Amino acid sequence: MAVILHALPNKIIPVEGAPCVLRDYVIANEDMKPLILTLRGEFEEIYGPTIAAAKDPFPVIIAIRVKATTNHYLSLSTESSSVILIAPIAQQAMHLQNWHHTHADVLRQMLNQSSYTNPRILLPPVNNNRITHIATVLQQKPRTAWIQGIVELDCVPLKLTYIACSLCYYPSKLVSNLPVPCQHCRSNADLVPRALIAISLTDATGSLCAAAIDIEAERLIQYSTAELYYLQQEQNVDLTQYLARTLHGKLLMCYIKPSPSKFKPIRRAAYEIITSYAIDELFNAENINMNNLNING
Ligand SMILES: [Zn+2]
Fold first, then answer.
1. All domains of the chain in start order, with CATH
2. pLDDT tens readout for residues 243-289
3. Ligand 1 mean position to 169 CA, how many Å?
């Protein structure tokens, strides 16, 4: 159960040859972490007008059996078995509305800052007991996991950016200053470069290779995408040593997912980093106990 804070413009995408309407709604509850709920197809056709016509500009929504997705950031989406209720008459819904009235200013501010696309707000760092050993990740292949490990630069020669559709971020084979039809989402969209880097993460049990994309890559290597794109075009600049030095030995807590098979920007990187925290950002360096972290220093 959540309050609908905002409806984003609807989108029409082809699904199995037929056009399908979908709309993203920003919702929030007492967790204070606004996030996107996507109503797909008939859910938007049926409930979109109800939401738009609701007496309360911030109607309460109950969404049952919705799935969590991690495309670009954490969000929720309907699937065929989902159940949606708008403005239910229930005691809890009234509580939630009262809660929204008292927190409306803060929520509006979070909405203006697009906090629902910010993994640092949606996925704050977790306690040690929620960290999965890398060996367990490799064996059990969970859909997402928090891991912790020591970083090294992986994959040389380096590919530091790729050209992507500005809407769905899938890679484009074309390079153009004009909008081009995207092979993945079919929109006529501008192309943008996106930063990309592969790192290996090692804990006491094993190691894996993961790709950091866009702001995750920028944060790790402290270069902007524009700078990386420029440097990559320059023949005589070798960033390998700089990057290896910047990354070497960093201790990182990351939330990862397997790279989608349709889009693996770096073949060796079986995982993609959804968000990450440098451990020294979280604790004072002297308080880090390597044994507790379960990492061979
Ligand atoms: Zn696209």
1. 2-122 (2.40.50.140), 128-293 (2.40.50.140)
2. 888 888 899 999 999 987 766 667 778 899 999 999 877 765 444 44
3. 6
